[in-house]
Specification:
The chain starts with a helix and ends with a helix. The strands form two sheets. It has a three-stranded antiparallel sheet with strand order 1-2-3. A two-stranded antiparallel sheet has the order 4-5. It has one domain. The mean pLDDT is 89. It is of the alpha+beta class. 58% of the residues lie in helices and 13% in strands. The chain is built from five helices and five strands.
């Protein structure tokens, strides 16, 4: 156990915590500010066009996780579960010992976004979403015995969700594209 803790301490020294911490704080603050601003200025489920029908502001309260999926009815248990998942993801990401700037941005984005939504869950019992995009229609279909009813608009989301999504897109870059680029440079 002591060996693992010492290795973890050494791994933590590899990262630029000012960059990660700054991203974490900035994303959390922007997320909370925008949620509270639009929650106070928009009526629930009233659609305010920004770019016609393509981009609208629509207040939606999401009691679940992604796409409104509910995994716990007990709110305290849900908050504790969210904290445990955040800790697991954080340890998982730093365990790669990839201290590139992109990976540090990944950590800042994912942790900042997760924390922004955690604040909502802890204080309000639900996450406030407000960005409503008409991205593309997905038709109804059945897969492996599960029926998906389709969608004519993308699920409503917030700044925290965007940050987590950007983090996961960048993970794809870090693990799949960046190694190929480095291999090309070395050959």
């Amino acid at each position: 156990m002591n060996i693992y803790i010492e290795e973890l301490k050494e791994t933590l020294k590899l990262f630029n915590w000012k960059l990660i911490g700054s991203m974490f704080v900035i994303i959390s603050i922007i997320d909370q500010f925008t949620k509270q601003y639009y929650f106070k200025t928009l009526l629930p489920y009233d659609h305010t066009p920004v770019l016609g029908d393509f981009l609208r502001l629509t207040i939606h309260e999401n009691p679940g996780i992604a796409f409104g999926i509910r995994i716990f009815e007990n709110q305290a248990l849900f908050v504790l579960f969210t904290i445990a998942v955040m800790i697991f993801i954080f340890i998982y990401l730093i365990s790669f010992k990839n201290n590139t700037m992109v990976m540090q941005i990944v950590i800042g984005c994912i942790m900042g976004g997760a924390f922004g939504n955690l604040i909502d869950r802890a204080l309000f019992g639900k996450v406030i979403d407000f960005i409503d995009i008409d991205f593309f229609d997905i038709p109804s279909f059945e897969l492996f015995g599960y029926y998906f009813r389709g969608m004519d608009r993308w699920p409503i989301f917030n700044v925290a969700d965007m940050a987590v999504s950007v983090g996961f897109v960048l993970i794809t870059y870090v693990f799949f594209i960046q190694p190929r680029l480095q291999n090309k440079k070395s050959s």
